[in-house]
Structures are given as structure tokens and as C-alpha cells.
Amino acid sequence: MSRHVIAPVEELPPGARKFVTIDDRPIAVFNIKGEFFGLLNRCPHQGAALCEGPLIGLAQSSNPGEIEYTRHGEILRCPWHGWEFDIRTGQSYCDPRKFRVRAYPVNVEPGSAVVKGPYVAETIAVSIENDYVVVDL
Amino acid sequence: MNIQVRPDTAPASSTTVRPAIADCDIHPARKGSKDLYPYLAKRWHAHLETYGGHPYQGMMSGPPYPKAQPNASRRDAYPPDGGPQGSSLSFMQQQHLDPNNVALGVLCPLNTGQGLRNQDLSAALASAINDWQIAEWTGKDSRLKASVVVANEDGPAAAAEIRRRAGDKNFVQVLLLSRNVEPLGQRRYWPIYQAAEEAGLPIGVHAFGFGGNPITASGWPSYYIEEMVGHSQCQQAALSSIVLEGVLERFPKLKMIMIEAGFGWVPSLAWRLDRAWARMRSEVPDVKRPPSEYIRDHIFWTTQPMEDPERRDHLFDVIDWIGWDRLLFATDYPHWDFDEPSRVLPAGVGDAQREAFFLGNARRLFGIAG
Ligand code: FES
Q1: Which residue of A has its CA nearest to B344?
Q2: ∠ CA A126-A132-B1, rounded to 5°
Q3: What does each C-alpha distance from B105 to A99, B27, B92, B275, B336 come to in angstroms?
Q4: Contact call for residues B291 and B317 (beta carbons, < 8 A)
Q5: CA A68 to CA B87: how far, in whole Å?
Q6: Which of B74, B55, B165 lies closest to B118, judged by CA?
Q7: Residue A83: CB within 6 Å of ligand 1?
Q8: Would the CB of A81 count as within 6 Å of ligand 1?
Q9: What's the pTM?
Q10: Which of B20, B183, B279, B346 has the fewest CB atoms within 10 Å around its CB?
């Protein structure tokens, strides 16, 4: 497993997403209300840049006629054919057994830890005063 | 808030060259409502601004976008220089034609003014959109070919437009839509078929249309998802009408392309038509052969939306019935249900079939040398 520093936290405020390429893999990191998530930016269906899609909620129905709309902003909808993926797990909603998008753990680490750690700083200079978004690959 | 932070360096692009393909359903869009003005008499500028288009459709179910994605199009297909998806040739080249190695792209303009109630306006808009296709698209990229758009409800006007474009190598087909005022085999449309046959142009019948009829035979559906699948039943009705009215008997050289309505249903429709014809042949003596023979001889099918059954042998069975020489690959770019060429065919297709599917059939049908 390798760890990659991708941005200072200020660069990724809530609602932001950052696209990076790590070890030839296109990855996007999202800040959703202060929580960070990483997903492979390639749709398992036909290969669209999945992470360019909108974040929507989850429409579900437990009984016909009763519709709940929950988890607003946590479901990623593919920009091509609209398949929906759970940003927390990469699981698809149309066929969860067969299709999932690779999810990567993302953490926030203090600069002091990043400077010391076994990390690879991708594109940014690191200083110990800051906090950094770190992706595990 | 939706901030997007992009990496400084573009991701490494693949160095493998994809095999050349034809794309038989590309939708060019206009940047704005006045794009056609240079090709339209002044009278119509004022008319459009005063009265609008005035379609047959009471309950519009075509243009009001978004449909599933903005403008019913890929979210990643907005040109960086502005305008709706599909409105920039340079971006289409960069996003689709070049990377997918499209050697032949057939333009199917939609929302063109086909089938308006004011037939003169419909004819003027059809002619304008044909000029626009040459000026903005085929004249600037020789891979692209245009459709002759016609005022489909006015047979003589449509035939005149086809004759005006006959012999012009910018055009490779005549474009009709599946929903018209009447089923497509009926006599009001025959002048179109006659002119197309004379011009040697196949007729493309694209799903959609604004003839005032609902998409399903049981009325207006509640959901867009019903409309999506309704296209195939609409196309079945159009095709049945074309066969049973004797169009293909009367115009024996005519070829037709069913665009964007699937093809998995074709064998069962043909079986039902053949069975009914055997019993009731005397009602339609103009139809001299079993309907399936006309279908096999005259009809081509674009692939998008590609049939995707769970078992690939089911797909191959259907294609074996239709013929590997009858399918024309299409992506539907920039629309959201775009098919990615490298992902549409399952494994197990031989090289010759693959070549026919992706390019050879289209080149032969449109008479375009490789
Ligand atoms: S490519 Fe993502 S849903 Fe088809």
C-alpha cells in the first residue's frame, strides 16, 4: 500500500472535488460536508469519467407510492448513463453485486505526520503547520 | 458549492490507435436559436419571433430538456467555449471524432422544424438546416456527412428538397422521424420515398417526432423511462406500416435505416407479420412476399442503444437473424445514452463481423469508399 499527499485541506473545502492521477490511475477526491472520499474516476459500465457527475440524493421506496429522498449529496451519478454510486463505498445501486467503483480511503493528516511519514507528496510542497489530504492506494 | 480542482498535467493519453469506425447517429446542435437565420428568408425571422414553431404536439414530449442529463446529453460534453453539447465542431473532434477514430460520421439534426403545422415554415427550416449542416459541419470536416432534413408532412415539398440535394456528396441519407401525423407507410409520404429512391439516398427513421401522437399506443406515459422504451413500439408501428402499405414493393431500390430504437424486437415482429400475412395476404395483395423478406432486404439498424442481454448468445442469435451485414454502429454523441465503441460488443465476435459492424456496412450502404 502506498500513501499519497494530494492537497492541503484548505484547497479542498466542503463541496470541492480534486482530480489526480496516481500510479496511472485517475482518481477523484471529494470533500462532502467535511468528510473525504476517494473514487476511481472511471465508470465500471462504459468507462466515463464518473467523478465529473453530479452528487445527488438517494430516492428509495419501501412501499409503492411512498418515496424517500435521503443521503443528499452522497450519491454520485455517472455523467453518461446515469448509474448511481454510493460515494462512501463505491457500490452501485443498479447492480450492487456485479458493479462497484473502486473506493480509496482518504484521510486528513497533520503536516508534522506527513513530513515524517512514508508518504509520496504528489504535486505540493508540504509544511508542518498545515493539514493535508492523504489517499491510500 | 461545487469547486473543481484539476491537475496541472493531463492524464497520460493512450498510445494505442483504435480501429476506424463509422458513427451513424451524431447529433449536431445549434449554439443559439438564431443560428439558422443566415439560411432563412427574413420573413421567417419575424414569423418565428412572433408565432414560434407551432408543432402538432399538444403535450410536448420532445424538446423540454433536461432529460436524465442536461440537454439529454453527456455532462462532460459541454464545449469549453460555451453553447450546448454538440454545438462545437472543434470540441466534437477533440472529444469524439479523433479519439474514437471516427472515419465516417452521419449527422442527424433534431428539433429542426420537421413536422410543424405551418408547412411552409417547416420546409423553410428544413432547407435552412441542410444549408447549415454543409456550412458548419460537413464543409469543415470531411469525415462528417449530412442528412437531408425534410418537411415530412408535406410530401411534395419534401420531395423537392430531396431533389435539390440529390447528387450533393455532403448528404448520405434523408431523415425522417418515427412519430408523424400518420403511420409512415401511408400515401402522403410516398413522394418522399420516390424522390429518395431516385436520388439513391436511404431513408433514416430516427426515434422521436412531433406528429401529435403519444409515444405509446396506450396513450401518454407518466415517465421518461416509459418514453425511452416506447420508441421501439413506435418504430414497430412505423415499420409494419411501411411493409404492409407496400412501400418496399413499390420502391424496390429503397433502403431504410431504423435509428435509435433497438433491434432485439425485430425477429419477433417479423415472425408475427409473416404469420398474419400468410392468413390475410388477400387484404394486402400489393405485399407479394412474406414481410420478413422485405425487412431483411431493405432495412438497416443503427446499434445505439445497443442491446445488452444477460447472455451474449441471446444477442448473437438476434444478430444472426437480422444479419451481421445490417447493423450500423452508432454512438448517439453527444446524448447521454452514448455507446462507447470499445465497450459495446461482447467478446466472441470474429474480425470480419466486427469490421462490418463498425465500418464496412456503413461504407457500403452510403457508398463511401474506404
Ligand atoms: S459509463 Fe457510467 S453509467 Fe455508463
Answers
A1: A46
A2: 125
A3: 32, 10, 11, 38, 18
A4: no
A5: 38
A6: B55
A7: yes
A8: yes
A9: 0.90
A10: B279
Question: Which positions in chain B touch A28 (Cβ < 8 Å)?
Answer: none
Task: Measure B280 CA to ligand 1 centroid, in angstroms.
Answer: 46
> In tens digits, what is the pLDDT along chain B, a chain of 370 residues?
345 454 444 444 555 688 999 999 999 999 998 999 999 999 999 999 999 888 887 766 555 566 788 888 999 999 999 999 999 999 999 999 999 999 999 999 998 999 899 999 999 999 999 999 999 999 999 999 999 999 999 999 999 999 999 999 999 999 999 999 999 999 999 999 999 999 999 999 999 988 888 888 898 899 989 989 999 999 999 999 999 999 999 999 999 999 999 999 999 999 999 999 999 999 999 999 999 999 999 999 999 999 999 999 999 999 999 999 999 999 999 999 999 999 999 999 999 999 999 999 999 999 998 7
Residue with CA nearest ligand 1 atom 3 = A81
Taking the C-alpha atoms of residue A105 and residue A36, their distance in angstroms, rounded to an integer, is: 8
**Which numbered atom of ligand 1 lies nearest the CA of A46?**
1
Which of B30, B238, B245 minimizes the C-alpha distance to B149? B30
Round to whole Å and give the CA distance between A133 and B46.
58
Q: Which three cell numbers stand for residue B206?
A: 430516427
Contact assessment for residue B203 and residue B253, using Cβ atoms and an 8 Å cutoff: no
ipTM of the complex: 0.79
